[in-house]
UniProtKB/TrEMBL annotation:
GO terms for cellular component: adherens junction; catenin complex. It comes from the Eukaryota. Residues 3-83, 84-138 form the Cadherin domain. The keyword Repressor does not apply. PROSITE patterns: CADHERIN_1, CADHERIN_2. One of its GO terms (biological process) is cell-cell adhesion mediated by cadherin. This is Cadherin domain-containing protein. Keywords: Calcium, Membrane, Repeat. Its main location: membrane. InterPro entries: Cadherin (IPR039808), Cadherin-like_dom (IPR002126), Cadherin-like_sf (IPR015919), Cadherin_CS (IPR020894). It is found in: Membrane. Pfam families: Cadherin (PF00028). GO terms for molecular function: beta-catenin binding; cadherin binding; calcium ion binding.
Length: 138
């Protein structure tokens, strides 16, 4: 945040209010720079709404209208996919034809599916080849 009224003489003070102001987000009252005080997790909260204003340090009156900022937290791939069951049990008849479906499992990921590939799930089989295979997308 920076005011055109700021002459650099220290007569202005920048203040911050809203979600996490003073704890998660702080403002340098002299420069208007806004900083996060710790790492932010999108799964905890996806966006924050802050309001900032430049005021006259002596009179405490605003020199600019209040500005509103929406800080959107971009997701990173910080969650592993999870399965609803820890163990799946299935059976297949003896002498089944190649390609017979044995079981379908579904994993979910807490990352944001609308941003990048963080929530994209790809399946692979770790043991059981060449007798079993998995379709990577489904």
């Amino acid at each position: 945040l920076h005011s055109d009224q700021d002459k650099g003489d220290g007569s202005l003070k920048y203040i911050l209010s809203g979600d996490g102001a003073g704890t998660l987000f702080i403002i340098d009252e002299k420069t208007g720079d806004i900083h996060a005080t710790r790492r932010i997790d999108r799964e905890e909260k996806a966006f924050y709404t802050l309001r900032a204003q430049a005021i006259n340090r002596r009179t405490l009156r605003p020199v600019e209208p209040e500005s509103e900022f929406v800080i959107k937290i971009h997701d990173i791939n910080d969650n592993e996919p999870t399965f609803p069951e820890e163990i799946y049990t299935a059976s297949v008849p003896e002498m089944s034809v190649v390609g017979t479906s044995v079981v379908q499992v579904t994993a979910t990921d807490a990352d944001d599916p609308s941003y990048g590939n963080s929530a994209r799930v790809i399946y692979s089989i770790l043991q059981g080849q060449p007798y079993f295979s998995v379709e990577p997308e489904t």
